[in-house]
């Protein structure tokens, strides 16, 4: 699913109006009805509902929503925040229509006009939408602050008032902090950026049949991967396949005290359909891996506690495996850096690079050029900052991410809420699955195992990253639904991996 920018959203409205064709007012009615259908599904008709409307089309939506809820006998109060002398045409039209069924529309010009908001009621925020062009001030600011202080449940229409669709807010901007955002048709970039969490709440999309052809043709680097889209990437298994069909992966993982990372990664790899797995570990890890992951072959390093290289031990060079995954628990010993230095130029196929392998790279940037093209890197934000440089906001981080992936021709999975998969072409695919329970030790090692397995099976690297991140997040969601996000462990996530 595409994520469009604010100009494209406006053009999409216009294109819908022109090509369907549909009158702007009727499009507003359709959007409002979409919101109301969602609302009716979530809140009973006894819900005391206060709707705050601005003077533009977001406010127009609010007035239409008020009318549609009143027709359904919800107890509704309407507050129009009068911040400017002029209203939009469709606001005025909906104002007239609402007046036909109620005399009781309240106007908020000063703070004293604001009502007291209680915990057992719902506030619908239709003050400002995608037309936001500057920070909220004066009575708009006071209204937002009052709503944010209130114990009521808050639902924003289209987007929280005060939040920009696709540009950074300033730290002191006053923005609605909703419990839910009900938006129209397509997600907005603001919804998937980690820092915006409290200005979005849970977000939902209602389909208002905007012009499909416009959406299909609109150029954008940003996509939101829906579960349906991710599942389509899954390769079907032939009945007469054998373990050779699914590749032989080499995983370089572990060091003294961090063998758990190797175990988790290996187990995740095996649970993700790899044909054969060899794990190269320091000698101290040999009995650990052999006994805890019997399905994997194990290759001990020449060194007791850290990884130093496979060349002296194995007759099969890393380049002959279907793919190589490196990083979980390897530490940053000088010998391990030497191993990485020697390894990279020999690998000609995309590989998976994670954790301390990324940290070693960031401390030795001349190695970037040696990373096989289209390899998958899986940094969390701190590791990504080490690989690049600090950023001032999520938008700058996104630019850095796209630049880095494009410049080095890599697939970069930036982990976090809505993990972002950046492609060598400069696209970014945001993932829908996952929850805060996944920010616990070892889940990153699990992801490395998953991705290594998918590359070994011959998945295209971008598809491997999109599918792997989705499946990993979904496993996390399954575990969280069973035992709650607080008690979940990375081992639980491995066990919950499912491929169907
Ligand atoms: N397809 C859809 O998504 C549909 C969306 N609809 C709804 O329309 C709004 C967007 O409506 P719009 O009228 O463009 O904009 P707003 O309602 O957000 O804002 C109204 C005007 O307010 C001015 N403005 C901007 N920032 C501020 C501020 N901080 N304080 C005060 N006023 C502000 C601005 O005018 P300027 O000329 O002064 O910049 C805005 O134009 C969208 O969010 C949906 O809710 C439709 O219903 C149809 C389908
Ligand atoms: K709003």
Sum this structure up briefly.
It catalyses: (6S)-NADHX + ADP = AMP + phosphate + NADH + H(+); (6S)-NADPHX + ADP = AMP + phosphate + NADPH + H(+); (6R)-NADHX = (6S)-NADHX; (6R)-NADPHX = (6S)-NADPHX. The chain is of the alpha/beta class.
Labels describing this entry:
17 strands; Rossmann fold; alpha/beta; UDP-N-acetylmuramoyl-L-alanine:D-glutamate ligase; seven-stranded parallel sheet; 2 domains; isomerase; single chain; 500 residues; ten-stranded mixed sheet; binds ligand LZDS7PUF; binds potassium ion; lyase; EC 5.1.99.6; elongated
* CATH-scheme architecture of the largest domain: 3-Layer(aba) Sandwich
Mean pLDDT rating: 97
Kindly identify the CATH topology of the largest domain.
Answer: UDP-N-acetylmuramoyl-L-alanine:D-glutamate ligase
Strand content: 15-25%
Tally of alpha and pi helices: 16
pLDDT < 50 runs, ≥5 residues: none
**What structural category do the secondary elements indicate?**
alpha/beta
Number of strand elements: 17
Task: State the shape.
Answer: elongated
Associated small molecules: ligand LZDS7PUF, potassium ion
Largest sheet: 10 strands, mixed
Would you identify the CATH H-level superfamily of the largest domain?
Ribokinase
Total of domains:
2
The strand order across the widest sheet is: 8-17-16-15-14-13-12-9-10-11
Radius of gyration: 26 Å
Tell me the helix content: 25-40%
- What is the distance, rounded to the nearest whole angstrom, between the alpha carbons of the first and last residues? 21 Å
GO molecular function: ADP-dependent NAD(P)H-hydrate dehydratase activity; ATP binding; metal ion binding; NAD(P)HX epimerase activity
Protein name: Bifunctional NAD(P)H-hydrate repair enzyme
Cofactor: K(+); Mg(2+)
Binding site for (6S)-NADPHX: 57-61, 129-135, 158, 261, 329, 380, 445
